Amino acid sequence: MDNSPDGLVVVTGAAGALGRAVVARFREAGHEVVAVDRPGDSLDEVARQPGVHPVAGELSSREQVRAVFEAVDAIGTPTTLVALAGGFRPSSLAELTEELWQQMISSNVASVLWCCQAAAARMTPAGGGAIVTVGSKTAVGGPAPVAHATSKAAVVRITELLAEELRPHGIRVNAVLPSVIDTPANRTWMPPDLAARAVAPRAIAEVIAFLAGPAAAPISGALLPVYGNA
């Protein structure tokens, strides 16, 4: 696997708060970064950084992901995929609708699965690579909105399964499991006590960079809690 600063890193959900921190962390290490997100001002802002290549697109279907990775091919061969793209909508069982359920599955499960498939197809002939997914503390226990937690539990299991399947091809697959991330959007609803304990995006970006890097070469199939005190 190419862990040199020349390795191309693909970050989905790159225009979000965690995505921006991850993009910045890999740029600091010298990597060229492909920033994937929906088109708009937020992606344009991320793309103003030197060494960041924007690719606008949706990731909810295999065909859409295929188009995104064809754009990636014009930039280079990825050695790392950080699959951050996803969504959150609260709901109790009584409030759950088919539309909300499908949105959580599309944004949190389908996007990860199809991006992993596309990235692995490129990493395998190149000799390997690293994939980092994002689960959730609620995927492995505790009370949570049923649709979101179930979708993130699927991400956790996908991570474990792909770690086994892709290990012979030199591709490592690991996940981080955040609790509450300190983002501007989350601060609109967090009480002060929780906001004080929420985990900074930069701290999670450091863990992601470790999992993608050479120091984590023996690690695949890990589900790494990044709960902090939240």
What's a concise summary of this model?
This protein has 230 residues and is an alpha/beta fold. It has helices at residues 17-28, 41-46, 62-73, 98-126, 146-166, 184-187, 192-197, 201-212, and strands spanning 8-12, 32-37, 52-56, 78-83, 129-134, 171-178, 223-226.
Topology:
Blueprint: E1 8-12, H1 17-28, E2 32-37, H2 41-46, E3 52-56, H3 62-73, E4 78-83, H4 98-126, E5 129-134, H5 146-166, E6 171-178, H6 184-187, H7 192-197, H8 201-212, E7 223-226
Parallel strand pairs: 1-2, 1-4, 2-3, 4-5, 5-6, 6-7
Helix pairs in contact: 1-8, 3-4, 4-5
Describe this protein's structure.
- The chain is of the alpha/beta class and 230 residues long.
- The protein has a single domain (8-226), classed as 3-Layer(aba) Sandwich (Rossmann fold), CATH 3.40.50.
- It is 44% helix and 17% strand.
- Strands 3-2-1-4-5-6-7 form a seven-stranded parallel sheet, with helices on both faces.
